[in-house]
Amino acid sequence: MSEVREPCVPRLFNEEGGARLLGARCRGCSTPYFPAPAHCRNPDCGGSDLEAHGFGGSGTLWSYSVANFAPPAPHKFDAPFRPYVIGVVDLDEGLRVVGQMAGDAEGMRVGARVELVVEPVYHEGGKAFTSWKFRLA
Fold first, then answer.
1. DSSP string, 59-118
2. How confident is the model at residue 1 (pLDDT cuts 50, 70, 90)?
3. pLDDT tens digits for 45-74?
4. Strands 84-91 and 96-101: what pairing?
5. pLDDT value at position 48?
6. Rama region for 105: left / alpha / beta (φ>0; ψ in -120 to 50; rest)
7. Cβ pair 118, 13 in contact under 8 A
């Protein structure tokens, strides 16, 4: 039986047809954004015509750190707490994104190729609450 999955934060990502972050791109200057802002923030762009854009696929691990302490509320996690890796990834589509890394720190290295995935962050009430993560490719 498959578990019921629900996003931790609705409308930021989806996993239908592959993991995608739901952001925007400026039609005037092509600057990518995640999450989508109300207007283009590029000071060199005179426009503010944003279109919805899904970012996904692969990228390169730019930096990472290990969180050896439990995050404060309202963040949730499955007990007992286990250290996890937070990565900063340059997606091939031109967006730099922070996200939790799937797996432990072993094998992580700056410059490693990674892929966007959606995985559970914690379980509650018979559901798996999911978020985007990056996994070594």
1. EEEEEEEEE-SPPPTT---PSSP--EEEEEEEETTS-EEEEEESS-STT--TT-EEEEEE
2. low
3. 988 899 999 999 899 999 999 999 998 999
4. antiparallel
5. 84
6. alpha
7. yes
